[in-house]
Amino acid sequence: MNERDFADLAAGHALNALPEADERAYQEALAGNPHWSSHARDAADAVAAISETVVPVEPPASIRASLLARITDLPQAGSAVPEGDPVDAEDYAAAGPAPIEPEAEIVSAPSWEGSGWGMRRWFTLAASLVAVLVLGFGAVTIGQQLTRPASIVALEQVTSAPDAQSATATMPDGAVVTAHWSASTGQSVLVTDGMPALSNEQTYELWFVRDETPIAAGIFSTDASGRATAVLEGEFHSGDVIAVTVEPAGGSPDGTPSSAPVVAVATA
């Protein structure tokens, strides 16, 4: 067995779909070539990654009914052979001994050993089946991934950066505000919990305070629990103070804070 064929078997093993003979061949090849274990890990990781994207969904009852209908249409083993007309029955005893036909040569199925083509075709089919499951039963999850709010995507980008940092401040009323930033990406995100609700004529506005100069960075609103994930507009600079003020709906009319910050988070 060559390494490419082993990689194909590793894929089938990860899907728990190898016939007994192929599973034995896989285990023997792995024992004899421990340096091929990376293929087994890669296949297991790929299957795990795919399975995590699929939300378990109860299949519709119509699928079961359709399968049972197809099964009943298949010829059943041991079915009685239709009886012919008695007048057409042949007198085999009178016909004498039946000629002995030479025994048909038993042709074994082509082995997957060597070429790997059969297993690769099988794995392609298996991968296609997984794709169908993901696109069918996992469509909701995939749709959610594609339609995630931009603020959540930005937060993940910031927190996964190698130089990601954060700082938390607590407001007098107990609201918690956490600033996340990354100098290498130039991004910053503010996450709030318990911020006081504002009237329809007011909004929260974000600011970079840089060298004591406030720079407008966008407005945001919170949900009923005072939660929000707000991306600051503009590039973050190391040492900026991230501040929040309460402004008229639509933001400060002249581009400068109209009130003292309700919260400020230092990043230095």
TrEMBL record:
Keywords: Cell membrane, Membrane, Transcription, Transcription regulation, Transmembrane, Transmembrane helix. It holds the Pfam family RskA_C. It is a single-pass membrane protein. It comes from the Bacteria. GO terms for molecular function: sigma factor antagonist activity. One of its GO terms (cellular component) is plasma membrane. The chain crosses the membrane at residues 122-142. It is found in: Cell membrane; Membrane. InterPro entries: Anti-sigma-K/W_factor, Anti_sigma_zinc_sf, RskA_C. Residues 125-260 form the Anti-sigma K factor RskA C-terminal domain. GO terms for biological process: regulation of translation. PANTHER family: ANTI-SIGMA-K FACTOR RSKA. This is Regulator of SigK.
